[in-house]
Each structure stands twice: as C-alpha cells, then as structure tokens.
C-alpha cells in the first residue's frame, strides 16, 4: 500500500500530505517516482544497461538528465566506483544489490521501501549498506521502511514493528500494545 502498487479497499494512504487514493494512474506513477524509492530483495536490474545507466533510470523517467554526478557519487558510496560502466549482467549478485540500493536512493525519495536489502550481501558489505542507509536517512530526512528477517544487522533504529500471524506489534516481541495497520 505504501508503495502505491495496490489501492486500499478501505481507508486511505497519505504520503507527505498527499492523499494518494484520489490520484489517477499517471499521477501515481509520477508521485511514486518522485517520493518513493524501492530496494527489492532481488536487484531487478536491466541487464542490457550499464551499472551507471541502471542507477540513472529513475531520474531519466522523471525527466532529469543532469544527475550523472549524483549517480556516480552514490555508486562510490556503495563501493562500486570501479564497476560503473560494466553491464549489469557482468557483476556479482552482491554488487547488483548495491546498484539497486543506489538506484533506490537516486531521486532522494521521502520514503525508501526496502525488502531484505542486505539479504544477498556478506556481513561486511551489509554493515556498509546499513550505515549508508542510516546516514542517507539523516542527511536527506528520509524514512526507510525495511522488511527483514535478520534484524541484528540494523542495530539501533527509531522504530520496530513486528508482524506475527498477520498482526502488527510495536517492538521486536508482541506485547500488549497492538498497532492497527
């Protein structure tokens, strides 16, 4: 629902003061491109494009062709400065995930939705990526919503919501305080 990939049957989804259920498909696509970043469990890179072109894609869709330096800076931040011009199908799975993270951050979205963003990474790279996400969250005032089965990588975070048996609870263990989502 938050990713605007589906519409609620009841209730509403408001993001940055915009009630999204009133938006048509074109406006939802534009809103999603400007306000939301996605980091999927699997990188979903376009294999015929270079690493740099994959990161630039959301900016090009938004009509901004001037973000090459920002894309290069993000690729440096995720440790891929030496892979920028390789085709996406010529890099490792862990490298592809780091490209996907840079692509999810390129538009400086208000909300970044991350599904197991460190799932395919070794522990050292995972820590680097977690620290990058935390620093971007502070620097750009972004909210990261991270779905993970491996909570230990993320250390101290602002809020934890645990979902167990289809119900959401505040904190790591279900308690008396239940959250309705």
Polypeptide structure, described:
This protein has 181 residues and is of the alpha/beta class. The protein has a single domain (14-149), classed as 3-Layer(aba) Sandwich (Rossmann fold), CATH 3.40.50.300. Helix content is 34%, strand content 15%. The chain contains five helices and eight strands. It has helices at 25-35, 51-61, 68-77, 93-105, 123-139, and strands at 14-15, 18-19, 36-39, 111-115, 143-147, 161-164, 167-170, 178-179. The strands form three sheets. It has a three-stranded parallel sheet with strand order 3-4-5. The longest helix is centred in the C-terminal third of the chain and has 17 residues, at 123-139. It is globular and about 45 Å long.
The tally of domains stands at 1
Mean pLDDT: 84
CATH class category name: Alpha Beta
Number of helices: 5
How do the SSEs run, as a string of H and E?
EEHEHHHEHEEEE
Judging from the principal axes of the Cα atoms, what is the shape?
A: globular
Low-confidence stretches: 176-181
CATH homolog superfamily: P-loop containing nucleotide triphosphate hydrolases
Strand order, biggest sheet? 3-4-5
Q: How big is the Rg? A: 17 Å
So what's the oligomer here? single chain
Give the CATH topology: Rossmann fold
Number of strands: 8
| Main structural class | alpha/beta
* Strand-residue proportion: 15-25%
Using the 3D structure, state the CATH architecture: 3-Layer(aba) Sandwich
Helical residue percent band = 25-40%
Question: What is the secondary structure topology, with strand pairs?
Answer:
Layout: E1 14-15, E2 18-19, H1 25-35, E3 36-39, H2 51-61, H3 68-77, H4 93-105, E4 111-115, H5 123-139, E5 143-147, E6 161-164, E7 167-170, E8 178-179
Parallel strand pairs: 3-4, 4-5
Antiparallel strand pairs: 1-2, 6-7, 7-8
Helix pairs in contact: 2-4, 3-4
């Amino acid at each position: 629902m938050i990713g605007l990939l589906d519409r609620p049957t009841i209730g509403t989804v408001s993001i940055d003061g915009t009630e999204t259920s009133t938006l048509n498909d074109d406006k939802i696509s534009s809103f999603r491109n400007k306000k939301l970043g996605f980091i999927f469990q699997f990188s979903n890179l376009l294999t015929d494009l270079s690493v740099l072109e994959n990161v630039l894609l959301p900016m090009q869709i938004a009509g901004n062709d001037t973000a090459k330096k920002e894309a290069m800076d993000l690729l440096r931040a995720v440790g891929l400065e030496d892979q920028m011009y390789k085709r996406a199908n010529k890099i490792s799975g862990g490298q592809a995930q780091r490209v996907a993270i840079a692509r999810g951050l390129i538009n400086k979205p208000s909300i970044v939705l991350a599904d197991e963003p460190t799932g395919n990474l070794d522990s050292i790279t995972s820590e680097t990526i977690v620290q990058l996400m935390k620093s971007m969250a502070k620097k750009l005032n972004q909210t990261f919503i991270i779905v993970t089965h491996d909570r230990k990588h993320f250390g101290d975070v602002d809020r934890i919501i645990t979902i167990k048996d289809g119900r959401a609870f505040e904190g790591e263990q279900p308690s008396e305080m239940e959250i309705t989502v």
